[in-house]
Amino acid sequence: MGTKKRHGFWNVLVVITVIICLLALTSHYKNWIRTNANDIQILSGFYYNKVDFSELDSVVMVEKIPPMERLNGFSALEKEKGVFREFKDSLTDKKVYVYVDHFPNPKIKLVYRDSLRLFMNLRDSLENEKMYLFLKNKKDSLPLQFSSKK
Question: What is the pTM of this model?
């Protein structure tokens, strides 16, 4: 009886596919946040956003996010991530970025560049509170900027 010859190519392809799936799962698992002296960078899977502290208009803690239509993204268990559009503002097509790791926790609402909105929170409520206070202090410590229109 003859033995079957197995191709190493397919074994390598399966291993690479499993590794890519694990990396995608890890990147969506939580919000990866990096703060620098001038900005905050949020990475969550395929979604990335960078907000300069000088562009912050308001930082507020809210219990619920408003009803929105999902343009792309996902919801799974207690997570909600992606790009949304508010129902009441569907004509202007303003995007709202949502990076929620734990839905029951309060969310941090950032308004920047005059009208862009971002909702985020962290899984740990104490870390979430620390992030809110950090962003609030950064916003409050910025000098007031007046624009002169001629």
Answer: 0.76
